[in-house]
Amino acid sequence: MENKLKVLVAKPGLDGHDRGAKIVAMALRDAGMEVIYTGLRQSPEEIVKAASQENVDIIGLSILSGAHLKLCERIQKLMKESDIEDKPVLIGGIIPAKDVEKLKEMGIQEVFGPGVPLKEIVEKVKEAVK
Amino acid sequence: MISEREVAKTLSLIEKDPLKAKEIVSKYPERDYFVVGITGSPGSGKSTMTDKLAEMFAIEKDVAIIAVDPTSAFTGGAFLGDRIRMRRSVKRYNIFIRSMASRGAVGGLSPGIYDAVEFLGRAGYDIIFVETVGVGQSETDIVNLADLVLLVLAPGTGDDVQMLKAGIMEIGDIYVVNKKDLDESQKLLANIKATLKLGGIERDIISTNSITGENIDQLRDIVQGHLTVLSQTEKLEENRKDRYKFNLLNTLFSILRTRYSKTEDLEKIISLYTNEEGENNESKEN
Fold this sequence. Notes:
Chain A is of the alpha/beta class. Chain A has helices spanning 19-30, 44-54, 68-81, 97-106, 118-129, and strands at 6-10, 34-37, 58-63, 89-93, 110-112. In chain A, α2 (44-54) packs across α3 (68-81) and α3 (68-81) runs parallel beside α4 (97-106). By secondary structure, chain B is α/β, with parallel strands linked by helices. In chain B, α7 (183-198) links the parallel β7 and β8 (204-207). The longest helix of chain B has 25 residues, at 235-259. Classes of the chains: A alpha/beta, B alpha/beta. The interface between A and B is medium-sized, with 29 and 33 residues.
């Protein structure tokens, strides 16, 4: 009857800055989506577990620590093990240009740097689920 | 027991379509299970308490949590943040947690929640905690859903003697006054005790600190006591029958809401209903 997009917004790793993740979560909420926010300092295991239990349509990660390659690799691996590798993963944060290609090769659908308009993120999330 | 992943996927189907949900649920055999509702004002410590209680019960039982947060009436979106306070449960005992948005349902509960709870029960979970904020005028829905309701209150969240008139204060089987470390907490405890006494109502009431875990052991024992009484009487069976009735009502409302949200359609339904009533009355007169 109702088909709402369910999004997991998570912050893996040790950086403690979640303003960005919260702002994106609010923008997605205001676009009519159901956003599950898991809070700071989550392990890849916790994130994948939440995505699986909640059966979300898409996963958004916010990483500002510089550990994006390691964290994404681990998350992708766990997603495969949990049989949810079909869920698109988008990431946002401080990502050096040279790593963007690597992340995409790994299977990350979109990489957002600072200054991307919220509208664009909302659109990309909708597209990614289609 | 079916796999956790399968449970998660099935819940999504249940949430999507209440009619199909009943079909899905009926494929699993009936089973005894308890529904424990945890409600109270925002910020009173419900999620943390649910986490702690669930963890204790999970030592011996299979436990699931459904955490309901409100859907925006304006955008239809929702921000579901209860998992933040429930990290221990998932980590240590692999408790199944599911967040649900209220999706504009009356009474502050999600339209698919009755089927979701029944499904989890049949899928093998022994105790299902449902955590929800009482919002709107008829926050008493949790009473229809749960076998036992814990009302969590904390000082400074607006729950004063005023709240005793508002309705939500009438729904608790167990009153939990949280944030024991705050001075006002003891005052609130005394206030509630006095008001209950005035009304001649006898209820369990306990003062806790859900972060440090103070008195949570005692709360667990009180909850267990209620559950034991329930399982030894006909009450559990009665509750399940009632729950089914409210499930149907809830489904009916959500169908009406989605299919006939135009004014003309609603007018048609009302005139159909009132005409039928009129005919019935006439035939009685004859």
